[in-house]
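User: quick one, sequence for these tokens?
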């Protein structure tokens, strides 16, 4: 693309920026005053919900995630609100029946979400199909994301094939989602150029600054024709977050690209979140190490977060001296499993199995239940077919499912409604329970407890 086109900017400070830097602990109170300014800043969208925010609201912040969404919409009514949805997993950690997926999407749209970014960890598009169809019924934007990774099979041609499949599903846009921050500038350019030549829907790029190349990468993907990019306002940018909004906007405009972002509004937004960042640092919510680049992600092709998790787990197990051996075992396990992207839950699965292989001194002497389920197709289809002899050495003659895992699930929303009973005051409450049965139920019980009785009991004690 030679002409200098309009580039949309998606701001991540309300979701992925704080999820990446402070474990999703930003309460609504810390964003509410700046929301009207964010709404007037000219962003293409505000990513503000989904990912881990739903879980964090009920588990740590004692906030109703649905009320949080409605409040954000009330204070930012003009800018499209965006969420991250893990396909058939929704925002939980298992596959849900189709009726739960449909109900969740319906309620998310009704409460304020305009753009649904939908992905599956294995890039098995069967696991995104129900979500896409549900979003299309609401009239909102169905944006399907491809989890970016590198391996001998993850070529530009491989990703172009996925992009064509996504367009064929009826998606309104697609996103290259580089959760590990390993998309380099030249690879980003060739990848986006190839995809733009193959599909006609808008292409968005999401990356992380983990490895230190993200600013350069975003400039190159725009040069290749990317329609939108994700950035984070500077005080909560860089490190494991996204590259800084202001820096990218200035660089793009100097190169002749157009944006609709208001620089003065960005200054006000940055000033607000600078105070928040200082508060989070004082409260030890942000580890200063998270604010710097970790180029090892590029050397080992392993996400920075996975490196730190491995190191921590090995120390706890008294195996710190085995770090280099485990790190070398990770790509071997990943190859055995058909080169899955190293994203949740697959990164944990591969890391744990690599640790077991080294700790026991014998590869696959012990195999986690998650890997066993994966090997018989219960997470979906692996990017590359798994060697049959390898599979049989672990699973014997157990049958491999060759269909969408959720096809085994019966409708469950009605059953869940009966289970939670009077604790649920709305279908949104039922969905809180559906996604997080134990934590959600405790949240609803605490929320429904009359304040007067709490005061009386406290006074009596």
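Assistant:
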């Amino acid at each position: 693309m030679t002409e200098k086109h309009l580039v949309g900017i998606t701001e991540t400070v309300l979701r992925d920026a704080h999820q990446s830097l402070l474990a999703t602990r930003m309460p609504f109170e810390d964003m509410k005053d700046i929301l009207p300014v964010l709404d007037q800043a000219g962003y293409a969208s505000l990513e503000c919900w989904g990912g881990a925010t739903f879980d964090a609201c009920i588990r740590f912040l004692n906030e109703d995630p649905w009320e949080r969404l409605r409040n954000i919409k009330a204070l930012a009514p003009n800018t499209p609100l965006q969420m991250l949805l893990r396909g058939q997993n929704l925002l939980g950690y298992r596959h849900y029946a189709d009726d739960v997926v449909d109900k969740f999407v319906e309620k998310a749209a009704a409460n304020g979400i305009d753009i649904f970014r939908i992905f599956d960890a294995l890039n098995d598009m069967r696991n995104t199909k129900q979500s896409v169809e549900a979003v299309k019924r609401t009239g909102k934007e169905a944006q399907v994301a491809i989890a970016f990774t590198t391996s001998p099979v993850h070529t530009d041609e491989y990703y172009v094939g996925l992009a064509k499949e996504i367009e064929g599903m009826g998606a309104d846009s697609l996103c290259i989602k580089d959760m590990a921050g390993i998309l380099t500038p030249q690879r980003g350019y060739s990848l986006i150029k190839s995809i733009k030549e193959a599909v006609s829907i808008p292409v968005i790029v999401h990356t992380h600054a983990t490895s230190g190349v993200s600013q350069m990468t975003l400039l190159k993907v725009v040069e290749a024709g990317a329609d939108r990019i994700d950035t984070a306002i500077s005080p909560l940018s860089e490190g494991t977050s996204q590259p800084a909004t202001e820096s990218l906007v200035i660089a793009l405009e100097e190169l002749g690209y157009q944006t609709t972002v208001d620089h003065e509004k960005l200054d006000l937004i940055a000033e607000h979140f600078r105070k928040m960042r200082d508060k989070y640092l004082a409260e030890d919510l942000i580890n200063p190490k998270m604010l710097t680049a970790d180029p090892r992600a590029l050397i080992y092709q392993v996400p920075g977060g996975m490196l730190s998790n491995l190191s921590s787990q090995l120390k706890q197990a008294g195996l710190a001296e085995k770090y280099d051996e485990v790190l070398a075992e990770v790509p071997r396990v990943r190859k055995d499993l058909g080169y899955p992207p190293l994203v949740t839950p697959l990164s944990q699965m591969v890391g744990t199995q690599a640790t077991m292989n080294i700790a026991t001194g014998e590869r696959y002497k012990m195999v986690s239940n998650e890997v066993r389920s994966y090997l018989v197709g219960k997470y979906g289809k692996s990017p590359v077919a798994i060697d049959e002899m390898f599979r049989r050495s672990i699973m014997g003659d157990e049958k491999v499912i060759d269909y969408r895992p959720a096809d085994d699930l019966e409708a469950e929303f009605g059953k869940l409604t009966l289970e939670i009973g009077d604790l649920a005051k709305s279908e949104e409450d039922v969905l809180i329970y559906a996604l997080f049965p134990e934590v959600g139920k405790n949240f609803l019980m605490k929320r429904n407890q009359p304040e007067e009785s709490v005061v009386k009991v406290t006074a009596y004690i």
